[in-house]
Design a protein that fits this description.
4 domains; Cytochrome Bc1 Complex, Chain A, domain 1; globular; 710 residues; five-stranded mixed beta sheet
């Protein structure tokens, strides 16, 4: 399969990878810096992660108020960064017109950071808060314990998170080390810039990639062998953890195929065999580490109470021995077909690994009669030719997403108590055909969301409806424990769910006439009663304790907006100042955010804080103080926001979710162009009213992992 990427090297040594894809609605950039936590001086654990944080605090040219984070947020985009063991990533996704502005800010902040002591002192507290949360997170500590199974000489088992003690910012030696790390690694020869989008990309790459200092590749220190003895991770009751160490993988190896193949649930393989025996509740395979030919893989198995642990472990090793020597030609062809039929977004394209799928050998000889799975039939699905069929009463068809996008979406909500999580196996099959299938629960309603190319989506929907028409009893799936603020976000849809009303409702968009007729026919077979959603009612003010108490206080505020346009603009204007005040100035914690959200048909502003030091009462007090500020003033953000609600610039999934929320709110003729016009018509009095309504607390829904203060 030919690569869609074009490669070039700039005069300063920067390697650039470009993916021009006319079908994309957005563009994305990723900068890979070939240096991570293991490249930091041993005396200062966490230095690399600390520097990653400091980059976002502004430069001389772009102060924090006009830096990358604020710019991307104003454009309705997304951004993030991640420090790994031997590399650090910075990435964003924005509308095409915003690429030059975002890329210039990204390159400038990496090339010319302001590393003042005042900024370092404040950001070190954020790093320390992250370390406190990491120290108390059971899953994070479990992974850390697994990493410590490698050789004591290997840096993988060391401490690299960073905290107050490991980052002595007032010492001249630390400042010299910080400046040296930036000089050595944040130069053109040590970086790769990847861009994807529908427009010409070479010009901005050359213009802004040239901001980096000229340099050549720095040889990162070769790590010692991963192993100096057998890998023997500690075991937990009901689980089986196996670690696989590899010392000599090819430099261009892509492990995704191997990991997916190990965990493949189709007949003939390991997962299917364990399920048939009734021994398996969950299985996943992940890469914990990879650098310079080394890789550490983790196989995590959740066992039933009847499982024979030693036999499970034997079967895993037997399957790995078979899988490493089997003939993979048919599966590799299926892998290529899947990559071809998927329609990744700009950010996924920019981050895509171009390596060759790799199947490492595993010691031992297989004795079990394994076989590789047969190709997924859903990949060969075609749109059936059916007679013109009217849409059933419960289905709303939106024309907003045109069929030319080659992306269809069906939302189906079923209000019934007898349904359970019965679609798990089909979710796995759908993913192997490039279809995203979600089956989630809110209160007593179950929601199906199915998206992708029309032919496999219709096939998946047909099989899903057949299963739901005669559901078999299933055990509730195991859910990993979330941090407190995410527990509150998970509970919010349940609290906003409407009263129980039996029946179903659905919305479809993106289907052409032939595919729509096929969908109408499928949905027409649903035996239950179709119904119209009940528009949400105003919320009474309420404090709802939920989630684990824990060592940190988490509070989530949802404030409904009477006017979606004004609420969205207000959220845009205060997002940066809210983050600056509560996270940077007050240093309440690392988990601080605000945004406009639509949940269960309710539109409103959401504010979240998780703090290791401030109490719930103090967090609420800081929110009140912030809302007591003068009303934000109307500025150019209005036109920037309005431009984001232009269907050709909106991500397909974003269009569909907005239409679905409008449907749940009782608006079956929603069009983002109407919202864009309304935003452009906003005046200062509209903002004044929205700000006053927000500060009144009349409809505040507060979720907290503790009781309401007196």
């Amino acid at each position: 399969m030919s690569s869609p990427f074009q490669h070039l090297t700039l005069s300063n040594g920067l390697r650039v990878r470009l993916c021009h894809a006319p079908h994309l609605k957005r563009c994305a950039a990723v900068v890979w810096v070939q240096a991570g936590s293991h490249d930091a001086p041993l005396a200062y654990p966490g230095l690399a992660h600390f520097l990653e944080h400091l980059f976002f605090l502004g430069t001389e040219r772009f102060p924090v108020e006009d830096g990358l984070m604020r710019f991307v947020q104003r454009q309705g985009g997304q951004l993030n960064a991640s420090t790994r063991e031997r590399h650090t990533d910075f990435f964003f996704e924005v509308p095409p017109a915003a690429l030059p502005g975002a890329l210039e800010r990204l390159c400038d902040m990496l090339a010319n950071p302001l590393l003042t002591l005042e900024r370092q002192r404040a950001e070190r507290e954020v790093i320390h808060a992250e370390w406190v949360a990491w120290s108390g997170n059971a899953e994070a500590q479990r992974e850390y314990a697994l990493l410590r199974n490698v050789s004591a000489q290997h840096p993988l088992g060391g401490f690299h998170a960073g905290n107050r003690e490991s980052l002595p910012i007032d010492e001249p030696e630390f400042q010299a080390a910080l400046a040296d790390f930036h000089r050595r690694f944040y130069q053109a020869g040590q970086m790769v810039l990847s861009l994807s989008g529908p427009q010409e990309l070479a010009t901005p790459a050359q213009q802004f990639g040239g901001l980096f200092a000229t340099g050549s590749r720095v040889s990162q220190v070769t790590p010692p062998p991963l192993l100096d003895g057998p890998l023997q991770p500690a075991q937990i009751a009901g689980q089986l953890d196996l670690l696989l160490a590899h010392e000599a993988l090819p430099a261009n190896a892509n492990l995704d195929y191997y990991l997916a193949g190990i965990a493949d649930s189709r007949p003939g393989g390991l997962v299917h065999a364990l399920r048939e025996r009734g021994w398996l509740e969950g299985f996943n395979a992940t890469a914990l580490y990879r650098f310079d030919g080394q890789a550490l893989l983790h196989l995590h198995t959740r066992l039933s109470t009847t499982a024979d642990r030693s036999e499970v472990e034997r079967l895993i090793h037997d399957w790995l021995a078979f899988f490493g020597t089997a003939d993979h030609r048919d599966l590799l062809l299926e892998h290529e077909r899947l990559q071809a039929c998927r329609s990744p977004g700009a950010l996924e394209l920019s981050r895509r690994d171009e390596g060759v799928p790799t199947v490492p050998k595993h010691p031992g000889t297989s004795r079990h009669p394994w076989k590789l799975p047969t190709p997924e039939p859903l990949l060969a699905a075609v749109i059936p030719a059916v007679e013109p069929t009217p849409a059933p009463a419960g289905l709303v068809i939106s024309p907003v997403l045109p069929a030319s996008r080659n992306f269809v979406v069906l939302y189906l909500r079923w209000q019934a108590e007898h349904l359970g999580d019965v679609l798990g196996p089909l979710v796995e099959r759908a993913s192997r055909a490039g279809v995203e299938l979600q089956w989630t629960r809110s209160a007593n309603a179950w929601q199906l969301r199915c998206s992708g190319a029309a032919a496999p989506v219709l096939a998946v929907i047909g099989q899903a409806l057949a299963i739901l028409g005669n559901p078999a009893p299933v055990r509730e799936p195991h859910e990993p424990r979330l941090i407190p603020i995410r527990q509150l976000m998970q509970q919010l849809p349940h609290l906003l769910a409407p009263a129980n009303e039996p029946g179903w409702t659905a919305l479809a968009t993106g289907f052409d006439a032939q595919a729509q007729n096929a969908l109408n026919q499928l949905l027409g077979r649903i035996a239950d009663t179709p119904r119209k959603p009940v528009p949400p009612q105003p919320l009474p003010a309420r404090w709802q304790p939920c989630g684990d108490a824990g060592d940190e206080h988490a509070l989530l505020l949802f404030a409904p907006a009477a006017d979606e346009a004004a609420g969205r603009l207000l959220a845009q204007l205060i997002q940066g100042p809210f983050y600056q005040r509560l996270r940077s100035e007050l240093q309440l914690g690392y988990a601080v955010f605000s945004a406009f959200r639509q949940v269960q048909g309710h539109s409103g502003l959401m504010f979240g804080v998780q703090s290791p030091g401030a109490s719930h009462e103090e967090i609420r007090g800081h929110l009140r103080d912030f809302f007591a500020r003068p009303v934000p003033l109307l500025d150019a953000s209005r036109d920037t926001l309005a431009a984001q609600f232009h269907e050709p610039l909106m991500a397909n999934a974003e269009v569909a979710e907005w239409l679905w929320q409008a449907h749940l709110a009782g608006n079956d003729h929603a069009d983002p162009a109407i919202l864009a016009t309304r935003i452009q018509q906003l005046q200062q009095p509209d903002l004044d009213r929205a700000w006053a309504d927000l500060g009144s607390e009349k409809h505040w829904l507060i979720l907290a992992n503790g009781p309401s203060p007196a």
